[in-house]
Amino acid sequence: MKSRIKRFVVILIVLGLVGTASAAYFWRENVQPVSFVTNTMTRGDVLATIGATGTVEPEEVIDVGAQVAGQILSFGKDAHGKPVDYGSVVEAGTILARIDDSLYQADTAQAEAQVQSARASLQRAKADLEQIKAKLLQADRDWKRAKQIGPSEALAQVSYDAYETAYKAAVANVAVGEAAILQAKAAVDHSEAALRRSRRNLGYCTIKSPVNGVIIDRRVNIGQTVVASLNAPSLFLIAKDLTRLQVWVAVNEADIGKIHPGQPVTFTVDAFPGETFRGEVGKVRLNASMTQNVVTYTVEIVTDNANGRLLPYLTANVRFEIARANGVLLVPNGALRWKPKPEEVAPAFRQTMKDHAAQNKSGSQVTGKGVVWVLEEPYVRPIPVHTKMSDGTMTEVEGEGLAEGVKVVMGTVAKADDKDATGNPFAAQFMRRKPANSSK
pTM for the full model? Predict the structure, then answer.
């Protein structure tokens, strides 16, 4: 009985060992090897840029307002004889709109009447002065005769005193007459100033364009009443010259140190997909703004718009050109970021893989030291490189063993059997030996 039990245990152990070995064998035979995805190292140009978003703005905008209050009666005519509206081309002096001027005409007529009245008062004061001077002359003669005769039986003391008083009164009246003339002249000046003011207000009822340009915004309609109080109401927005535009870009404080006047810039707008526009940095505004603890500076980009394709207030996707290198060796950034598994590395270089593991990062711009992997069938081996400029897709590299046309590994992909690849993970799989590793 004991011998049967021993034989049974031995048989179970042998079957277990055989099953384990078979499973290991079949697992080894069914492991799907990987195929390395490669890309070719090329030689070309690389451009380092900073990306930002901005808005297309007219280079110079004139805000035309109203200095008087009233109702808009009509609009003027543009250069083509059509009523002034959005997009109208106007010249300096072109009538843009007319405000109801009935009240201002009445004020002007009243001021003109006041001027006439003041001038008449001046003439009267002058005439009064001449009359007063004539009385002074008579009083002077009477007073001189009285002094020659003196108080006596021929001239009573009362008459003598009367001639003296009359003379002094006449002298004082002359001074009063001269003061009245000065007052009348001041009244004339005051009334004439009031007349000029009323005429100027009357002229403000006709809104004219101060410059040559294009109407980019009309902010009033016929029949609307504008009220000019502390702030002049805005009626029209005129772009002085649309052949030169600006792009106002908000640049993060971390990148503003790399921006300088005259720096070349490229940008695109959604209105013209696939078309690239060029410009240059005009100035960096110093009045920074903070939004959610993020500090940004506004950068003005000047661009030529002689063909008139760009329109004001389009959203622009801007790229500032920071640096450029021509004819350098380039590798895709994906090759610098890819990290193989230990078993995929050639045994002689597995320690090198550990040394460079910390350098394989997933940043959009790789700088400093790095490593690329090339095929050494059936493994891969590393090549240390010095990374320089990057445009976000390709990076300039230098290092021994690098040359144009060298294939660098970008990643791996499982190599499936076409006949057994049914797409159903639960379908039966036939156990057959797979081919060795290959490159793509």
Answer: 0.63
